[in-house]
Amino acid sequence: MQQLKFRNQNTMPALGLGTWKAQGEELVRAITQAVKMGYRHIDTAMIYQNERDIGDAIRQLIKEGVVSREELFITSKLWNDQHLEEHVAAAVANSLQKLGLDYLDLYLIHWPIAFKPGVVLPESSDDYTSLEKAPIYKTWRAMEAIKENGLAKHIGVSNFTIKHLVALKHYCRETPEVNQIELHPLLQQTELRDYCQNNDIILTAYAPLGSGDRHQSMKSAQEPDLMELESIVALAKKYQVSPAQILISWHLNRGCSVIPKAMQSQHLSQNMAAVQIQWLPEDLVMMKELDQQYRFINGHFFDCPEQGYDWVFA
Ligand SMILES: NC(=O)c1ccc[n+]([C@@H]2O[C@H](COP(=O)([O-])OP(=O)(O)OC[C@H]3O[C@@H](n4cnc5c(N)ncnc54)[C@H](OP(=O)(O)O)[C@@H]3O)[C@@H](O)[C@H]2O)c1
Predict the structure, then answer these.
(1) What is the pTM assigned to this prediction?
(2) Buried-most residue among 7, 56, 59, 284 (CB within 10 A)?
(3) Does domain 3-211+256-262+291-307 have CATH number 3.40.309.10?
């Protein structure tokens, strides 16, 4: 399994297991299978409401001697209603308690947007906390304290653009170590990737398969299907693998981390096998032509200009 290096030379398994939209017995079973197959990196978030299930699965696996805590790499994320400096420590403590862990390997600010405490998803502009009242740099300072206190080995952000990262840089004792963003051949984010590479920030790709299982209300009318794109299907034929494996291995060959969500055991094993695929340089070059800056998760659902949040990805 490829490992990506943090600035302090600690490592993160490049392939992880996404868990958004997964809960309960199905998730416990999938985590158990995944770890037995060799997965070590699991991505969750407070908002996925599955930290307790993941904790149950991990505890059992450690008890059975399948894996040790130190071998696992667990990421969780701060939800948007906990951005005030004084709320961050309680939020991480809550995630740790549900996961049954003493520390996270990685803790991320989920979105560069603040809601009022207790708001899961905003219904009106009153549900937001303005950028003035909850500036991101203050949330970040609380994240730095989390790391200093040993509650997370590494800290980072998610859904941050270059603009957000540059703005934050002035206030950081330590800049984010990871930025988790939507990334796939139709949204290659080359400028952001170059910025992250030049600033020692690991990029993690979410929705690498197009997030096809998210709720219909989150989808636009005519979404492309990544796994049916002509070039992806042709590459799958050429390398004698599946389109999903091509989509996953592209990130690994590009130096990024990738966290496909998979509950079905054939998906879990296929995705794990994708780490073996070595791309020819000319195929990596050819992929650049597919970029359309197309987002499956476009962030418009969090627009709130009244509170200082214009389109998050602007
Ligand atoms: N930071 C953020 O704001 C953010 C946003 C979105 C996602 N994420 C993270 O990124 C992870 C991945 O993104 P995502 O869950 O949105 O979508 P995704 O990984 O792009 O797609 C998941 C879908 O692909 C299917 N699948 C998995 N492996 C497959 C294979 N080999 N062949 C065919 N289909 C396959 C899954 O099916 P089965 O489950 O039935 O196996 C599921 O329906 C999330 O789970 C979450 O951890 C983070």
Answers:
(1) 0.98
(2) 56
(3) no
Please list the residues that pair with 155 across neighbouring strands. Answer: 107
Q: How far is the CA of 309 from the centre of ligand 1 (A)?
A: 27
Is 48 annotated in the active site?
yes
> Collapsing DSSP states into helix, strand and coil, what is residue 187?
strand
Out of 48, 107, 128, 206, the active site residue is: 48
Give the distance (Å) from ligand 1 centre to CA of residue 211: 5
| Cα 37 from Cα 40, distance rounded (Å) | 9
Checking 215-219 for CB contacts under 8 A at 24+ apart, the result is 218/297, 218/301, 219/296
What's the pLDDT tens digit per position in 221-269? 899 999 999 999 999 999 999 999 999 999 999 999 999 999 999 999 9
For residues 97 and 113, give the distance between their C-alpha atoms in angstroms, rounded to a whole number.
Answer: 25
Question: Could you state, in order of their start, the residue ranges of all structural domains in the chain?
Answer: 3-211+256-262+291-307
